[in-house]
Specification:
The chain is an alpha/beta fold and 187 residues long. It has one domain: 2-Layer Sandwich (Nucleotidyltransferase, domain 5), CATH 3.30.420. 43% of the residues lie in helices and 24% in strands. It is built from 6 helices and 6 strands. α3 packs across α5. The longest helix has 20 residues. It is globular.
């Protein structure tokens, strides 16, 4: 497994209440960490976890778990958001494999005493672009604008992870019972 950080704002800066979004996959899992200052979300770090394709399923899942655990241990994460599992009737195997990766992410979050929030891909896209079927390049541009980045996040897995984190922020912002205080990691 290799971790490739595509964008990083000072990871040593003291921050609290970070939201971690994941775009799960067995070959590549995108991740994005945001924080909110003055009701403006901003990028903390984003990148991909890459699992070796020549490994067995169990080995790839372990690689993914190790990478996610490292991320969770490196930042004061308050909430984890992940794409909800869906299935195409034409490709059920893809959904099953995605379920393995998603399960590992949920387990790592649970081991860190963090609640996992799931969002449908169409909801995430609709919230950020107004179109529940927005193509990857439109999502990348939406993330660039929302986070005030010079360039769109690349690869698209990173943009998708950041979109999921932003969706969680916008959703909880509309629901005061999920306030920042309740999202903080418990000691």
């Amino acid at each position: 497994m290799s971790s490739e950080s595509s964008t990083n704002l000072n990871p040593t800066a003291k921050t609290t209440g970070l939201i971690l979004g994941f775009d799960p996959g067995l070959s590549i899992t995108g991740y994005g960490i945001i924080r909110v200052r003055n009701q403006q979300p901003e990028l903390v770090e984003a990148g991909i976890l890459k699992m070796r394709r020549d490994r067995t399923l169990a080995e790839r899942l372990k690689e993914l778990h190790d990478g996610v655990t490292e991320i969770l241990g490196s930042f004061p994460i308050a909430a984890v958001a992940i794409e909800q599992l869906y299935s195409h009737y034409e490709r059920p195997r893809t959904a099953i494999l995605m379920g393995h990766a998603r399960g590992v992410l949920c387990l790592a979050a649970a081991n860190a005493n963090l609640e996992v929030h799931s969002y449908e891909a169409t909801k995430v896209k609709r919230m950020l672009t107004g179109n529940g079927r927005a193509p990857k390049d439109q999502m990348q541009q939406a993330i660039r604008l929302q986070l005030r980045l010079k360039e769109p996040p690349d690869p698209p897995d990173v943009a998708d992870a950041l979109a999921i984190a932003l969706c969680h922020y916008f959703t909880t912002k509309q629901h005061p019972q999920l306030s920042d205080q309740k999202l903080r990691k418990k000691p």
